[in-house]
Structures are given as structure tokens and as C-alpha cells.
Amino acid sequence: MAATPSSNSASSAHDSHDFPPLTRDLAFPKSDIRVHLKDHYNAKVYTSGSPVKGEVTIVTKRDVHFDSIQIVLIGNTKASFDGMSFPQEITHTFLKMVMPVPESTYPLPKVLETGGTYTIPFNFVIPSQLTINACNHKRLSDQLQDHHVLLPPSMGGGWEKDDMAPRMTRVEYSIKARVLRETVSSTGPRPENTAIKKTRIMEGTRNIQVLPSTPEEPPLNITPKDRLYTMTKSKTLRKSFILSTKLGKITAEAHQPSAAVISSDGNSLVSRPTMRVSLTFDPEIPSHIASPPQITGVSGKVTAHTFFSSGTISDFPNLGEQWNTPYVTDRRGQFFTSVSLPPISAVPEVSWTQKMRNQRRDSGYGTESSSSPVVGKDKQKSPVYLTSTVDIPISLPTDKKTFVPTFHGCIASRVYTLSLSLNMAMALEKSKKRSSVGTRVNLTVPLQVAVEQPGAAVAGGLGQELPSFEEAQADEHLRPRVIQVMSEELREEVQRGRDSWMGGGGGVSSQNTGSSSSDASSGTDGLPGYGDGVVAGQDNEQGQEQEEDRLPGYGEVGGSGRWRRVVVEAPC
């Protein structure tokens, strides 16, 4: 072994005029470990349920003593912050899938010999969600944990098109192959106080892009505290300038559109959302109804908001005012960037519907002040107003940007907002020429970006997933029940069972002082389940009696005897 380096050194000295010295590289040759993926290419995207197959190849240049070989699929979220002296980076591992390598595949002894090539196959499946232990920190709502156990998409690098993520936040998926060596170290004076430390001798990594399928979430409950969104906006129409005559007020109220569903590879839009806007026009005088405002143009943009924190996130960062709280121990950051929507050529036509305003009616007991004329603003208020609803189709520029799905993680989140600008114009007629006045109404609504479910086109086929335990319970709870009148045969069978349980009918007597038994049971025999528990009489020693007040519609039957209800206590 010692002669090999010296001869190599002499050879290097002889050829020193032509090549740089290689003494150090040959004395300590570096072994190679690589991760090869099957049917993989640079632009390939994996989604929920996608298999990740391949093999790990180890080529040794010297003898390597080892104890185990580990192949894992790891998902990490990283957030970095600029510090005073050096940057700070936080890493959160939300996924770690270990493929077991059986001991039978290891060589005996556990030595990777020089010049040997070793191949170990592996097979992973991208899960649809994480385990419940992936999110065990403090939360302000239970709904947040449902989002934190969903797989986040790859973000911050690796995409062919810009995913609008900052350099401070990354979500990475990688397959790592490690050759480990174990050493035993003492942690105390006793023999049992030992710990096994694993040292990585060799490691190979291969990153993959993951775009997990995400379900469509219900609309958000937007409140005035959610400053990220503007669901309602009102503008006043005037003739020319600010102090000129008012023509009316236009109010636009937006409804949250459905989710924009993209394909599993992120290159196309599968389902286009439609944004519905409710318009209301309050004219200043009734004559302005003849020429209500119309939409002359629509433009919009989509803004990607990325939130990241040095600690765990306990609430939805896009809702409320928790994210902007000044006194927090964690360092927080927010990054947003916008992209314009494709031109909306088909401008929706507004079809107005005239409605009457609710006015207070005179009760007939008015005073002198009630008959006096109305003064002030209500005098000029028009008794009618106009309403309309328009639907605006939305298309995302997937050819320019990569839209990763909306997600909320333990230290990072991504949400989208849709901003629309409606150009409204109202025609005016002057002496000999026709002019118009206009205004612009801006709305900002939440927009969810989802990824299509794998095998969604196969309805009821083999590709359909089995329902979860909670879904099965919900289906059983919501299963329709049929309520119908008891048949005559079933009623007789129930009556026989009741008589058998009551001891053949002898346990309870039915007597009525001053009336016949047929009259006493005439009002209750027709109802199922009634008849045996209602008896007449004042002396009954086989049951516990409770006298009730006379009910409306019930009275004395055939005499002065009073009806009572007897509660029979039977053994269970």
C-alpha cells in the first residue's frame, strides 16, 4: 500500500512540465454516490400519488467501512433573514420518508471494497397529506392544522418559469442516499449511559419538483379587519369635477370566485374561475335612470403574497391583523409581486333592473309634523334604484409564470389576490352634443389556486380513492331515512309482542267508572303505540299513577269518571 503513493509521486514529478501534480487526489481518492431516477427529465413534475422510482449507485475508489445505508425522501421549508453580522436561516422538515434497506443486501463484512460498484433500488410514492404529528405547535384555530398537514408545493427554485417566490423562502423536495457509520459514545458514568452517533461518510442528493393536488376550499369569511381584500367599493358620479353636480352613486360588491384549477404539471389552466360582481346605482334624481352607467373596460392583475416566519405560524397570515402585530418574538417577512391578467376582450354588458326603495308607510295616526314636506337630502333622494349582476371570466397567464397552489405551512404560506378595475361611464345629453362621465371602481378579492386531483376524470372507476373514516361517518349520518305508516301485519306483530311482554295483557287493567271499556279506548286504539298505557279508573295497584290536569279537547267520557295516565315500570 505504501509503494503505490511513492510511485505515483515519481510519475507526477517526471511529468510535472505537462500536468499539474496529482499526488493528493490519488492518495485520498473520493468515492462516488449518485441517485438515478427512472423515467425522469428536468421539467418533470410529481404530484400526489406519483411514484418516484430509481436506484442508488455507489462507486468506491477505496475500502469504505460502514454500518448502514439510508435512502430518504425529505421535504424542507427554509426561511432566511438578514442579520446584523450574518444571515439567519430556519429549516423546518415536514416530510421524511425512509425506505428500509434490508440487512441481507449488505456485503459481509460491511465493507465497500475498492473498485466495486453497488446498486440499491428504491421506490417512493408522493403522499396526499402529512401525518398529524407534522403540526404539533400552538394554533389559534383547529382549521389551521388541516392546512398545515397538507403537502406544500415546491417553491423558490427549480421551475422553468418564475414562481414569484422571494429568495428568502424555499420549499424543497429531495431524495438523499447516505452511507452511515455508527460510533458509540458515553453520556454518563454508568454503562447503560451510552448513545449511538451516526456519521455520514457519503451522501448523494437529487432534487425533484412536487406539485401536490389540493382540494377547493370554501369561500373565506371576509371581515373589515382583513385589510388585504376590498370586497365592496362605492364611487360618486359627477358631471365634471369634484364640486360639480352629483349624478348618483355606483356601488360594486364582489363575490369570491371559484378556485383556479391548474394541471398537475402546472403548465395549463384546467378550470377558469368566474368573478361575479353585483352593481347598484343610486341616481340623485329619477331622470338619471334613463341613461344608467355601463362598463366600458375591465383590467386586472393577480398578486402572489408569500408570508414567512422564523417561528411557527399560529393563525392565517392573510386574515385579520395578527401578522402585523408589532410586538412579537419571531421575525416575520412578507413579499408580494403582481402579474397582469390577459386582456379581457369580452366586456360584459350591464342589464339594469329597476327597483323601488323601501319607504316608511303612514300608520294613520300621524301628527302635523308627519304631513310636513321632507327637507334636506331625502328630498332629492330618488325613490327608485337600479341593480345588476355581471360575470367576468378570469384567465391566468400560465405561459409567463408558474402558479404554485395556495398553501399554509408551519413557517411559510402563499396566497393570491385578484384585483379588478371596472371602468364605468354614464352618458350625458347637453344642448347639441352628447358627452359622458366616468369613474373607476377597484376591487380586490381572494383567489385560490388549486391543482387538479389525480384520476379526477375517472368517475366511479378503479382510480377513485376510498373514502376516509370521517367521510364514511358523514355519509352514514346523511343517509336518507324513510318514514311511513306501519302496515297492518307489522302492527299486529308489535301488538302481540307488547302483550307478551306485558304478561298477556293481564298486568294492567282497563276500567272506567261509569263508562264502557270500548268507549275508553276508542280515542287511542287507532294510533300505533297507544292504547295499553292509557287506562281508566281510580283504583289501580299494579302501576304507579300520575294524575294530570285535564287537557283541552279531553273530557269525561260517558260519565263523571276522570281519565288518568298510568306509567308502568317494567324490568329492563
Automatic annotation (TrEMBL):
Residues 509-525 have a biased composition (Low complexity). Gene3D superfamilies: 2.60.40.640. Residues 355-379, 493-562 are annotated as: Disordered. It comes from the Eukaryota. This is Arrestin-like N-terminal domain-containing protein. It comes from Podospora pseudopauciseta.
